[in-house]
Design a protein that fits this description.
Structural class: mainly beta
Distance between the termini: 56 Å
Shape: globular
Number of helices: 1
Helix content: under 10%
Oligomer: single chain
Number of domains: 1
Length: 118
């Protein structure tokens, strides 16, 4: 799966346990009408590819969706979903400002000076 958007946060490398499990995360704001802020984790050797990106970069990130199950201290079964990144492609910034005013839409779409009935 691929997700496209703008990088909002690049977190520092985290190391876990004796074997030094590596994780580096980014927060990506998606390019859609209602942008979502998604945290994407890069694990082990893939953590290194995050070094090439910066806040503000427009990217397409290839991810795998991983689910997990665990039992908390109160004995409740919990479920989680993680996005695990494995490839990053930088995009040219192609955002354009759209005019969404009702008056402009009406004028542009429905009024033609040559078609006036008088």
């Amino acid at each position: 799966m691929e997700i496209t958007g703008e990088i909002k946060v690049v977190k520092d490398l985290e190391l876990f346990g004796e074997n030094e499990f590596k994780k580096r995360s980014v927060v990506l704001s998606t390019d859609e009408q209602y942008p979502q802020k998604l945290i994407i984790d890069f694990l082990q050797t893939k953590a290194k590819i995050v070094e090439s990106i910066s806040v503000g970069d427009n990217l397409t990130i290839s991810v795998n969706i991983k689910g997990s199950t665990w039992t908390n201290k109160m004995g409740e079964t919990r479920y989680g979903t993680n996005l695990i990144g494995w490839k990053i492609v930088k995009n040219a910034k192609a955002r354009t400002q759209e005019t969404t005013g009702i008056a402009n839409t009406f004028t542009d779409k429905y009024v033609d000076d040559d078609d006036l009935p008088f």
